[in-house]
Specification:
The structure holds two protein chains of two kinds. Chain A is mainly α. Chain A has nine helices and no strands. Chain B starts with a strand and ends with a helix. Classes of the chains: A mainly alpha, B alpha/beta.
Chain lengths: 252, 308
Amino acid sequence: MNNVLAALWHRELTIYKRQFTTMGLMPVLTGLIFFFMFFLPYKSLLTKAEMVVVMPALVLDSLLLTLLITIYETTARFYWETQRSNGMASLYEMGRFHRQPSFFIAQGMISLTKGFTHLIVVWAILAFVTEMSFSAINFQASIVFILLGALQIVSLSKIIGLLAKHVDSLSKLLYIGLFPIMMISGLFLTKGVPMEKFPEIALYLPPYNWMAGLDIAFLGGMIDYGFLLICLIETAFLIWLSATFFHLDGDS
Amino acid sequence: MAVSITLRNIIKKYDEKAALNNVTLGVEKGHIHAIIGTTGSGKSTLLRVIATLCVPTLGSGYINGLNLGARQNQIRHQIGYMSQDSRFEQSLTLMENLTLHGKLHGIAQADLINRISGFVRRFEVADSLHAFPREVSFGTRRKMEFIRAVLHNPSILLLDEPTASLDQGCKELMEAFLREQKLRFTTVMVSSNIDQVERLADRISILDDGRLVADGTLKELKETERENRILDLTLSETHERDFNILDASPHVVSYTVQGNHVEIITEVDIPPEKITALFHERVVEATPRLPALTDIFKRMIKVEAIHE
């Protein structure tokens, strides 16, 4: 495990430094651009009191978007490349790592580390720009849901990376599939809106449960154990599913 | 001598087409085993089956005593594989590619650097070590791929056309290495270079349309042709009736015509003059010779085609 993690970490860091604009700057900028895209019109349209309610939800959405893009790009592309692209396939095929838990876990850990690093950068910038008070945020409660949500994204990305036949479909799936689901789920979650008022269909959106739990933790400062339980089950299921795909893929 | 690779009745089908049809093969430890065949005969598929990259539809096999179907991960650890096409990660330099491979195999940093330095000096590619794969010549990339295949000191080396399209210098370097390190590896090599196979291989298998049509040492394969002799004829001109003459001759086993050159396989005790007399004064040059591996290969493929 140590060998694999060290080797993959070194690879990831080398490529990250070399392609910093696309791998580092772009995900961070996407989160920030998303924030300002809504923040500027809201600021002119809403009252100060309304802005206080909307702002934390907008910040949370930007953070999640950054997390999603970073993890997805790191994980889905990596698995696609190791399985489908000539450039890397043989290297991993010929090691004892192919379909090995060490390989699976190591890349997951790298994705999470990168995702959270970008998240912290965006959070720091937004905290500075919005002068948002951290005192209202329950970090301990939030981190549980953010971590579970990130694990769900890692799992989904692995499945997509293993299933996608062409590299182009990775971006299509991100921007047509995951991206809108996350945006729609998140935008509805503003402070004080009871869950019962949500359209019924929204309850079936995949990231809904962890986002709802996160919303309550981040904005309300408490852990909703019902959502936490559902979130844990969902996360465990997705990890199991991606591990199964990972294990089965590769035979020709 | 101990057997490293054993394949029994391997069948590999893609949809309904059989890429490998009932192939049984044994490779002894420390031997260089060459696989030759026409394009699409299943050579690379066979190599991928041994590498556990391709699961056979039917049949069984053992690599160093490990079951091919059940112990893939252990088997892969013991294999160095050089595929036919270039497989490097383009975002990393060649050094980084080699380092990544070594680290994944758990080689300690200092040892890894030593091994890489030794290999790049030996294969004369030290100058290209810090270049990206796209920046170096095809020959350098192939040498680096060869280095990557042997870097983790595997016991089995699988080489798919390792020297195809390389210059003579590159070929000689790789061949010298394989000869010198022969006992360290059990090598299975797919090659279209018959001369190279004759120089290197301890044993040769000929594949045709997924079937193993011949298997043996060079001496054993030549033995199958001991009753034949080849007569290379250059004629001043060829006529349509030449085919009829050759077909009618009881001394001619088979023949091929390419322009003004006719290659005739005769029985070994037939004097060449008996054949040259068929073409009278049109014979410019006549060279009798014993069959080489190329001739055996061509004949094997042809015999199989006739049987079908």
